[in-house]
Amino acid sequence: MKKLGVREVVAIGIGTALFVVVGFVSIPLGFVPNTDLYPKMGILGFFAALFGPVVGLAIGLIGDLISSLIGGGIWWSWLIPMGVPGLCIGLFASKYHIEDGTFGTKEIVTFNIAQVIGNAIAWIFLAPVLDIIIYAEPANKVFFQGIWAFIGNIICTAIIGTLLILAYSKIAGRSTGLKKED
Amino acid sequence: MKIRTFLTYEPQDTWIHDLSGVTKFIFFIAWSVVCGLTYDTRVLAVMILISMSVLYMSKARWSQFSIVVKVLAIFMVLNIITIFLFSPYQGCLIYGSRTDICHLFGKYTLTKEHLFYSLNIMIKYFAIVPTAFMFMTSTAPNEFAASLNKIGLSYNIAYSISLALRYIPDLQGEFRRIRNAQEARGIEMSAKAKLMDRIKRMASIISPLLFTSMERIDVVSNAMELRGFGKKKKRTWYAAKPLKRNDWLVIAFTVVFAAAALIITYHDGNRFYNPFV
């Protein structure tokens, strides 16, 4: 693993803080626990896409650890999977060209494929399986929750994550807008 | 839109505040692992007693965590109801017997086994939640990050955690101001707006916060770079607390208790205490 640079260290710190703060906000979909829409997934997607897999993994894990401490208790089965979406999105960080200002249709598609895969592994597979292994909860209930969480999280990452990256790419890419004169 | 509120550190003069943040963290992690694994009602009962008394000794006030308790209580009740709706005989599957109490409706019959299983899930909350409150109200964030490095976590990650804890209150204030400003401009965030609109508007509230944070990342990382952060293999911490006698006692107790609890839980081959045989 590459050694973390200073900028990555700070990005993990402030990204985690943002993830936790925005994590206080959720949009409930129904009454079943763990199935709210979490806008914080958009923040996670943004940081993973910009800074790569290590930052994405760390923000997910540390952010969820801090959030659950504040919320009064750790549920391991939902904490561990939180590292996966960031890791998955971050693995393709070099393909998004965010800081070149060319985050366009192709990059949006790549980003969303990565996030759907990451969220699928995390919520359809990992979280329910851990719920069954660790907490002995009924299978049909946890897979139901897992699928809802998956849907909610891909919606949030797709809309909020993509919008945030688009907006940032426009600003960050502007400085490289110089063209060589003929 | 739901907004949860904070548990925050408050300096006090108790032996629990005197412990190193790492000691409390080890205790909390071990506690939550054991609490997750065990379905032994007797073990859980002892854990509730210990965690309640730890919380009491840390002199946390009810007002510091009353809101969190309410949110958790609702979550817990909904979770238990959801389990019952999805799998009304989960308890019977686990304990291998079925004793009906009364028929409710349709395929739903209340059984003693499922009631006991639900009770176990419920007391898990009572065993783990007080220790989280104790940890949050009695551990200074910067001291905690420093101690994490002392027990071997890479100081880069420890410093990230320290930064995160440092900036959460700032960003929270900023987030609140931005949201109020946007709502004052007439952006409807309550349940009256359509779902898709609410998600998109959420992006418009988050983006100013995100962009100022990106600037902050540049400023902070430049400052750290100028001070030579990351150049050496080690660094010193202003807030680090060495492990003292009490720390070692607590860690020893945690290890012994966790081992004993797991042995008692698993000695008969599975982790469920079965009063029905």
Structure description:
The complex is a heterodimer of chains A (182) and B (277). With 182 residues, chain A is mainly α. Chain A has seven helices and one strand; from the N terminus they run H-E-H-H-H-H-H-H. Chain A has helices spanning 6-23, 40-51, 53-71, 76-79, 83-91, 105-135, 139-174; one strand spanning 25-26. In chain A, helix 1 (6-23) packs parallel to helix 3 (53-71) and helix 2 (40-51) packs antiparallel against helix 3 (53-71). The radius of gyration of chain A is 17 Å and the shape is elongated. Chain B has 277 residues and is mainly α. Chain B has a domain at 13-139 and 244-277. Chain B is built from ten helices and three strands. In chain B, a hairpin with a 2-residue loop joins strand 2 and strand 3. In chain B, helix 2 packs parallel to helix 10, helix 4 (62-86) runs antiparallel to helix 6 and helix 8 (155-184) crosses helix 9. Chain B is flat. Residues 1-5 of chain B have low confidence and may be disordered. Chains A and B meet through helix 1, strand 1, helix 2, helix 3 and helix 7 of A and strand 1, helix 2, helix 4, helix 6 and helix 8 of B.
Give the topology:
The complex is a heterodimer of chains A (182) and B (277).
Chain A: H1 6-23, E1 25-26, H2 40-51, H3 53-71, H4 76-79, H5 83-91, H6 105-135, H7 139-174
Helix pairs in contact in A: 1-2, 1-3, 2-3, 2-5, 2-7, 3-5, 5-6, 6-7
Chain B: E1 2-3, H1 15-18, H2 21-37, H3 41-57, H4 62-86, H5 90-95, E2 100-105, E3 108-111, H6 112-138, H7 141-150, H8 155-184, H9 195-226, H10 245-266
Antiparallel strand pairs in B: 2-3
Helix pairs in contact in B: 2-6, 2-10, 3-6, 4-6, 7-8, 8-9
Keywords summarizing the entry:
heterodimer, A: 182 residues, mainly alpha, Arp2/3 complex 21 kDa subunit ARPC3, 7 helices, 71% helix, B: 277 residues, flat
How much strand of chain B? under 5%
Strand-pairing-aware structural class of chain A? mainly alpha
Low-confidence parts of chain A: none
Q: Summarize the biggest pleated sheet of chain A.
A: none
Pattern of helices and strands of chain A = HEHHHHHH
